[in-house]
Amino acid sequence: MALLPPVPKPIGVFPQFIAQQPETIVLKEHVLSLTGDSFSIKLANGTPILQVEGKVMSISGRKKVCDMAGNHLFNIAKEHFHIHTTFAVEDPQGKKLMEVKSSFALLGSKATATFTSSQTGQEESLQMKGNWFDSAADITDNNQGGLVVARIDRKLLSGKDIFFGQQTYAVQIAPGVDMALIAAMCICMDEKNNEK
Predict the structure, then answer these.
(1) Which CATH number describes the domain made up of 15-194?
(2) Spatial separation of the C-alpha atoms in residues 40 and 187, rounded to whole Å
(3) pLDDT band at 40 (very low <50, low <70, confident <90, very high)
(4) What one-character-per-residue DSSP string does 10-65 give?
(5) What is the pTM of this model?
């Protein structure tokens, strides 16, 4: 599979997580987690980059995301009273950094993430489209004419990663794209699909 080319200008909210070269991150749900859904997010080489903790008995399915030094980066929570499933990605003080809204797609799934880029100060819009159940989807930049900035593909994984029924996703990320932001989008889609 060809590597994704660098994006023309950096895309993201967390400058420290902007990919410097083509990267693949792996999101692996812990099956026997006592804290709700917890994920560890690692680079393909096994280096951990983010830790995600689910909150037990939370109506909004709130998740807390930290870097490996334990710094609280953001929370992900389901927003209620929307026609389409909507998640908010908020900083530790509760300020909304990004909104991920799913929309109806005839085949597969579709979601749009909107946020203000920390790099340019511009409003950005990324769209995730694909067959999430086969775990293949493209994330494209609506501001760049549909340029693919990340690609979710379970085929990049070995059999043992898929065997135990854990939700494990490999996500290719283009240079210049925020890995934490893409991980947040993937967690939102996983949460939406777990509701079914």
Answers:
(1) 2.40.160.200
(2) 11
(3) confident
(4) -B-S-GGGB-SS-EEEEEEE-TT-BTBS-EEEEETTS-EEEEEEEPTT-TT--EEE
(5) 0.85
